[in-house]
Amino acid sequence: MTQRNTSKMKDLLVSERPYEKCERLGEKNLSDAELLAVLLRTGTRGENVLDICRRILTAGGGNLSGLHSFTREKFQKIRGVGRVKSIQLLCLMELARRLAKETAEKGLDFSSPASVARYYMEDMRHLRQEHMKLLMLNTKSALIGEKDVYKGTVNASLANPREIFVEALRMEAVSVILLHNHPSGDPAPSGADIAATERIRQAGELIGIELLDHIIIGNNCYISFREEGLLYTKG
């Protein structure tokens, strides 16, 4: 039997073409590769866009979430992905991040660790280095400022609370929340995380700024020091 040439989208059966399948069955019935194919639109000489999209997903570990950490250069290492497609993919990942954050913002409540983690999840879970973020709150527990206070080895940033509280004092904050990510995806705090957080809490207590929580972001999961009973406040 002669194998059918499917190097071009027009060579696919009409029922296999992503546009037509979406019209017939709806977008929810398209695979991840088919959804990407609709957005990227064109293939290359000798390979249709659907096959390229399957290889893009394979490069990301078989799912869309694996692509969030890709740079333009990394996308362009995939055969068939050049300058234009790499930019399209980066913009798609950024759009997904913004949509997720906008949705989470509607229920944002700084007294709820789950709400805070959900809001910052897409910003932090795909980072390849540890980052620490400081959230500064007023007397009504409303956010008055946020600042990235460290990038790199988080234990080093935790060892010295000076930068944290200099910024909080400048903003006249009455309480703060710390967030940092674990690039491994596992949010479980280390012994050093716990000890250093306690040093920060004590320093804040001395100057009258309460450390409300320290939230560690993993891959679609988090741990709250307050929820886990790891924050030894007077209350």
Rg over C-alpha atoms, rounded to the nearest angstrom = 23 Å
SSE order, as H and E? Answer: HHHHHHEEHHEHEE
| Main sheet overview | 5 strands, mixed
Task: Count every helix, treating DSSP H or I runs of 4 or more residues as helices.
Answer: 9
Shape: elongated
Counting helices, strands and paired strands, the structural category is alpha+beta
Could you tell me the strand content as a percent range?
15-25%
Counted beta strands = 5
**Residues in helix, %:** 40-55%
Low-confidence stretches: 1-6, 154-158
Average the pLDDT over all residues and give the rounded result: 86
Strand order of the largest sheet: 2-1-3-4-5
Distance between the termini: 77 Å
Family: Belongs to the UPF0758 family.
InterPro entries: MPN, RadC_JAB, UPF0758, UPF0758_CS, UPF0758_N
Domain MPN: 109-231
Pfam family, one: UPF0758_N
Walk me through the structure.
The chain has 235 residues and is of the alpha+beta class. Helix content is 43%, strand content 15%. It has a 5-stranded mixed β-sheet with strand order 2-1-3-4-5, with helices on both faces. A hairpin with a 5-residue loop joins strand 1 and strand 2. Helix 2 packs across helix 3 and helix 5 runs antiparallel to helix 6. The termini are far apart. Belongs to the UPF0758 family. This is DNA repair protein RadC. Keywords: Hydrolase, Metal-binding, Metalloprotease, Protease, Zinc. InterPro entries: MPN, RadC_JAB, UPF0758, UPF0758_CS, UPF0758_N.
